[in-house]
Amino acid sequence: MVRNAWNGIVHGRTAALLGVIALGGSLAGCSGSDKPAKAAPPGTPGAAPSSASPPPTTHPFTGGRSGLKNPVLAVKIENTRNAMPQSGVSAADIVYIEQVEGGETRLMAVYSSKLPRRVGPVRSARISDMHILPQFGRPAFAFSGVQPKMKKYIRKSPVYDISQDNGGSSYVRWGPKPIPYNLYADPKDLLKQAPKATGPRDIGFRFGPAPAGGRPMKSFTARWPAVRMGFTWSAKQKRWLASYNGSPDVAREGGRLGGQTVVIQYAKTGRSQFRDVLGAYTPLIKTTGTGRALVLRDGKAYDAKWSRPSEEKGTTFTTADGKPMTFAPGQVWVALVNDGKPYMP
Fold it and tell me: InterPro entries, alphabetically (predicted)?
């Protein structure tokens, strides 16, 4: 049972785990091996820094100076109209937008420099998460469940599983919306159940003054088969304000969602051999290798290239002339868009 700490009502756990998690054999679109990457021991290339390593002077996720030693927490969050407004997204260091079944999208919010009071609606994990997360070392990973066949891969992957199955009273049913759009979690309570979660490490991001070049851009729309997410530059707020299918994407805490930097990362998206309960294929997003990107910062757009040699290592971004593509300090959104037309399996 899930204890409702906010309204004192006890609800039963979700009757069915929604969203099938897929492992794509040798199909195109799979990021590396189908098996989740294992954590590298300290001292090896791409491994989390050892305790003897000097602490970073700025946070590798935001370029700021707070939370330099805080553990890393990743949370899967619903990203459909039924879930809005979402809680806790505006406090994330990084927000990934990933395609799921039916051409919809889901968020994976990564926290370290600060934590919100509440985050959600929390939803189930996807195979693409297991290819993205190894670059963070061994983070805590919060989600509402997975397909039973996927559980053994979660256990073998370099994450601390603090899902609804393991999180106990950290998860509550809250608010007027029906299941599955009313599951929320307390990030501080979640991290208490993953005391050894790794701290922030270099994942390839570089922060600093804007590089030369770029072209003025007021807005950009990222497209998936069933979703459009727009980002409009606000000179007053000095960040990109998000919209969802043409409407302002508002945070439950107030104000618009959006970040100081938005990365449109074009990554090949294919289908796995598995389907969800409605028969739709689960997409697989290839986030290793190289590809093109569009980086939005300071009211400009920069053509860039992304590179990630393996799942244990981070993703670097370079400008057209091969120099590091610097991000504006603050929240980073990474929209994983198919390299080509919007992909519908």
Answer: DUF3048_C, DUF3048_N, YerB-like_sf
In our burial notation (b when 16+ CB lie closer than 10 A, e otherwise), range 314-323 reads: bbbbbbeeee
Domain ranges of the chain: 71-338
pLDDT tens for 104-163 read 999 999 999 999 999 999 999 998 999 999 999 999 999 998 877 777 778 889 999 999
Contacts of 98 (CB under 8 A, 6+ apart): 105, 106, 107, 108, 126, 128, 129, 285, 336
| C-alpha to C-alpha distance for 137 and 158, rounded to whole angstroms | 7
Integer Cα distance of 166 and 171 in angstroms: 10
Burial of 36 (0-12, 13-18, 19+ CB in 10 A): buried
Q: Give the distance between the most distant pair of CA atoms in the chain.
A: 58
- Calpha distance 265→287 (Å, rounded): 9
Q: Where are the alpha helices (DSSP H) in 145-223?
A: 151-156, 164-167, 187-192
Report the predicted TM-score, pTM, of the whole model to 2 decimal places: 0.85
Q: Domain 71-338 adopts which CATH fold? A: YerB-like fold (3.50.90)
Ordered alpha helix ranges (H), 96-245: 127-132, 151-156, 164-167, 187-192
